[in-house]
Every structure is written in C-alpha cells, then in structure tokens.
Amino acid sequence: MIGGGVVRVETKQDTRFADDLIFKRFITSGCGRGASFYSAVDICGQTKVESQIVISTSEILALVRESRHRSSIYRMTGGVHSAALCDRKHILVFADDIGRHNAIDKIFGQCLLENIPIGENIILTSGRISSEILLKVAKRKIPMIISKSAPTDLGVRLAEDLGITLTGFARGRRMNVYAHDRRMVTNEQ
After folding, report:
1. Any idea which architecture 55-185 has in CATH?
2. Three-state secondary-structure class, residue 40
3. Residues with catalytic function
C-alpha cells in the first residue's frame, strides 16, 4: 500500500460490534468515484437526540415555501442545493451551494462564527438525506431534518436509531414522515 498506514486502538473496556455492522460498505453516487463507509464505528458514542420541539405540518410547509423563495441562485440556474437552520416559524440561517453537504456545512459554519445556537432547531435541505447527512445533524443534536427530496434507506434507519425526526418529499401541501413523527402535529392549511 503506497502512502497507507495502520492505526491500532486499544480501549479500556471490551467493545464488541457485530460483524455485519463493522464491515458494511456502500458505494455512493459521487460521480462514480465516491465510497462511503457506514459502520458501528461511525455512530459509536453518538447518543440519541432528545428534544421537546413540536412543529405543525403547516409550519413545516411554510418554511419549505420560504426556503424555495430565498434561493435566487436556484431560481436562475436550477443547479444548486439549499440548506437552512430554522426555528418553528423562521429561517435563521440560509445557504446555497452546488453540493448538498456543502450547503449544510455552510449553515453550521455560519452558526459557529456568529455564535448562533443550533440545538432545538430544524435543518431544512433541498438534497437527498443520506446517512452522512444524518450523522452531521445528530452530532449537533438537531432533532429534526426536512427535505424536499428523498431519504436513503440507511438514512431512515439511522434517523430511527438516533431519535431524529426525518421528513422527506416536503412539497406543495404534502410530505412523508419516515422517523419519529411524535414531534409533528397535523393541522389543516
């Protein structure tokens, strides 16, 4: 192996993971070049996201509409992803980028630079919700992620395991809730 190395880690406690969790490998659609590894190690030590936030379906759809109108670059090109950090009523931070991961990273970066609290808020994204996106959200203790696009199967399972409310296909007057619907209440538009 050229330029490679070996890292050995010893733990104080005996830690065992099921083989089917440690050695899973998924090829992503990163232009045919991406390889993504999801294993028990990725979520090791990650606690469930606890939150008392409750949002109505009409509030969610209003945030989705507001986000769509905020993205002038998308309206001009149709070629960017958008992400937003929201409370129940307003978009607090908004970013566009050609990459869905980058758009979310820009949100977190701005929050860090401007000391904007992240927890007890919602991430709104235009992109697919993969396991990697879910882990980013979980590491910041954000209880809810909403997208106008689809989640991956692994994203749904991870949201369930980590206590994150996951909503996809939030468009027009409808949405699909894939995990932890307890944080949502239904109402008429």
Report:
1. 3-Layer(aba) Sandwich (3.40)
2. helix
3. 31
In 101-164 the beta strands, taken as DSSP E runs, fall at 122-125, 144-147
pLDDT at residue 125, as a whole number = 95
Q: Length of the chain, please? A: 189
Q: Which helix (H) or strand (E) holds 157?
A: helix 153-162
Specify whether the CB–CB gap between 164 and 49 falls below 8 A.
yes
Give the angle 128-153-97 at the CA atoms, nearest 5°: 15
Domain with CATH 3.40.140.10 in the chain: 55-185
**Residues 126-183 pLDDT 10s:** 999 999 999 999 999 999 999 999 999 999 999 999 999 999 999 989 999 999 999 9
Q: Judging by beta carbons within 10 Å of its beta carbon (0-12, 13-18, 19+), is residue 29 exposed, middle or buried?
A: exposed
Cβ-proximal residues to 144 (8 Å cutoff; 6+ apart), any chain: 51, 53, 55, 122, 123, 164, 165, 166, 167, 183
Q: What is the pTM of this model?
A: 0.76
Q: Please check the confidence at residue 22 and state whether its pLDDT lies above 70.
A: no
Closest to 154 (Cα-Cα) out of 169, 132, 138, 136: 132
